[in-house]
Amino acid sequence: MTNSLNADPAELAKFSELAHRWWDLESEFRPLHEINPLRLDWIDGISPIGDKRVLDVGCGGGILADSMARKGADVLGIDLATKALKVAQLHALEAGTRNVKYREVSAEAMAAEAPASFDVVTCMEMLEHVPDPASVVKACATLVKPGGWVFFSTINRNLKAFMLAIVGAEYLLNMLPRGTHEYQKLIRPSELAAHCRAAGLVLRETRGLQHNPITRRYWLNDDTSVNYMFATQRPPATL
């Protein structure tokens, strides 16, 4: 562990400025609301989360964390964006979501504090926004119990992803604020798989997330060329 936070101040400021819009279904965060049922069902289908202790790393305004709590999980969402966390806390109060809590703490600090404490760890749309994604992957692996599951989602780094996820989504369709993603921070599946192996996680399933901007329909398939998700597992403890 080091004393420096694995966070980009510019990234935190970017999301803090938009914090009040997290739960506006027609805001810049509309895509997250639209894909959330897909990723929630995918996670729950692999590792049913009802009654599980779940950690959502990089929870932002709590879109996924709140929905997992409504599935019956005992959820802790962590982030370093103060304003986004306040929005998440306020939404939980207003919506009456009782089994979700939020903390302003890094994944690495949480891993030092509570190793092997969670049945499921999720880290969605976050790795491409930190200086050292491998450090976050390692922290997630430390936080999950032996036999538990860690789920990641991020964006591939190639020409197609640049054209669709950055040029298309941010500059042509205005689905996301311009500057949301930086091409050099995007992560190839091979790179994320290497980070997972180094952290002791076993890759069990990979899924791609597809989008039709005309119909605003999203679906999962095997195409990981742009948006993709990993389901990984910490091997069970041996006797």
TrEMBL record:
Keywords: Methyltransferase, S-adenosyl-L-methionine, Transferase, Ubiquinone biosynthesis. The keyword Methyltransferase applies. One of its GO terms (biological process) is methylation. One of its GO terms (molecular function) is 3-demethylubiquinol 3-O-methyltransferase activity. The keyword Zinc-finger does not apply. InterPro entries: SAM-dependent_MTases_sf (IPR029063), UbiG_MeTrfase (IPR010233). Pfam families: Methyltransf_23 (PF13489). Pathway: Cofactor biosynthesis; ubiquinone biosynthesis. S-adenosyl-L-methionine binds at R39, G58, D79, M124. It catalyses: a 3-demethylubiquinol + S-adenosyl-L-methionine = a ubiquinol + S-adenosyl-L-homocysteine + H(+); a 3-(all-trans-polyprenyl)benzene-1,2-diol + S-adenosyl-L-methionine = a 2-methoxy-6-(all-trans-polyprenyl)phenol + S-adenosyl-L-homocysteine + H(+). Its EC number is 2.1.1.222, 2.1.1.64. O-methyltransferase that catalyzes the 2 O-methylation steps in the ubiquinone biosynthetic pathway. Belongs to the methyltransferase superfamily. UbiG/COQ3 family. PANTHER family: METHYLTRANSFERASE, UBIQUINONE BIOSYNTHESIS O-METHYLTRANSFERASE, MITOCHONDRIAL. This is Ubiquinone biosynthesis O-methyltransferase. It comes from Variovorax robiniae.
